[in-house]
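**Reference record**
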Amino acid sequence: MSDNGLVTLQSTHDFVTTLARIEAALKARGITLFARVDHAAGANGAGLSLRPTMLLLFGNPAAGTPLMQAAQTAGIDLPLKMLVWRDAAGTVSLTYNDPEWIAARHALGEEAQKPVAALAAGLQSLAREATES
């Protein structure tokens, strides 16, 4: 588990490709993509500039519901999210909340340990598929 609850992987691909790869990986696994939040477009609409920054909200009720059954406040961190972003040096990264951090944040008990481990493994697999060659 990371100290701040974030897991970040550097991508070997450009922004557009990384984004397309994560969306394709979600679709291939039958995971619902609920929303795309284009922070750069929002900034542009406010007359500001921001490097490419896209937040994806996605999930599967069968995976997330056990966390909310253990503590309904976990719903503030669900659906799951991944942020694809490009830094000032041009490096593209993908960041997501560590499910173990979510579990600790909401004091989820032992009954949530198995679903949390499954979510962590699934997110790591998705992130690697999107960022690695």
In short: Strands lie at 6-10, 32-38, 53-59, 80-86, 92-97. The longest strand covers residues 32-38.
